[in-house]
Design a protein that fits this description.
Chain lengths: ~110, ~110
């Protein structure tokens, strides 16, 4: 168990809908990262927050947004969902803000858009 | 169920043998590297990391080798066990950025 908690484990929804994925980092970790993993692709970095502030951005679509709350948990919001958004979404956390330190991953949320 | 791509390079080894998983990284400015293991239906799990000022680092049953000249990273697993069966990813951090770039992964299959 990495100590990173993601909910829900599975999510099934329809095209055009909006969903929220939640992540609680390991105790003491200030950074949260979001990744997308599709069947035909590896792990794609989406966005990073450090102590409540956006720190780095990757290939995140404009339909997606995230935030990190004062208690350091994070939410990833996916809107106007398309079939191609079906994927595994992982959250990771680390102590520091730079990526030169170990990121610990949660078990992921499997999103199916029908 | 499967959590990663179906067309990954695959390494098949016999239980007890040593495994070597290779990774070519993309950027000569990368200064930190990390190996993750991902079992089916689970999130990536940290194995070992190495900074660019080192050539080799050892952990328990694992060794990472870094060759900066040819931009190559390898993960050696000694006495491979069935529990080592998983997809292995290398990741690189490019100097002065805050992003880890993941490779496509290698599937390790261990047979008795």
């Amino acid at each position: 168990d990495s100590g990173v908690t993601q909910t829900p484990k599975h999510l099934i929804t329809a095209t055009g809908q909006r969903v929220t994925l939640r992540c609680s980092p390991r105790s003491g970790d200030l950074s949260v990262y979001w990744y997308q993993q599709s069947l035909d692709q590896g792990l794609q970095f989406l966005i990073q927050y450090y102590n409540g502030e956006e720190r780095a951005k990757g290939n995140i679509l404009e339909r997606f947004s995230a935030q990190q709350f004062p208690d350091l948990h994070s939410e990833l919001n996916l809107s106007s969902l398309e079939l191609g958004d079906s994927a595994l979404y992982f959250c990771a956390s680390s102590v520091y803000g730079t990526s030169q330190n170990i990121q610990y991953f949660g078990a992921g949320t499997r999103l199916s858009v029908l | 169920g499967e959590s990663v791509g179906l067309h990954l390079p695959t390494l098949s080894v016999q239980e007890g043998d040593n495994s070597i998983i290779n990774c070519a990284y993309s950027n000569s400015a990368s200064d930190y590297f990390i190996w993750y293991k991902q079992e089916s239906g689970k999130g990536p799990q940290f194995i070992i990391d190495i900074r660019s000022n080192m050539d080799k680092r050892q952990g328990q049953r694992v060794t990472v080798l870094l060759n900066k000249t040819v931009k190559h990273l390898s993960l050696q697993i000694a006495a491979t066990q069935p529990g080592d069966s998983a997809v292995y990813f290398c990741a690189e951090n490019i100097y002065n950025t805050d992003k880890l770039i993941f490779g496509t992964g290698t599937r390790l299959q261990v047979f008795p």
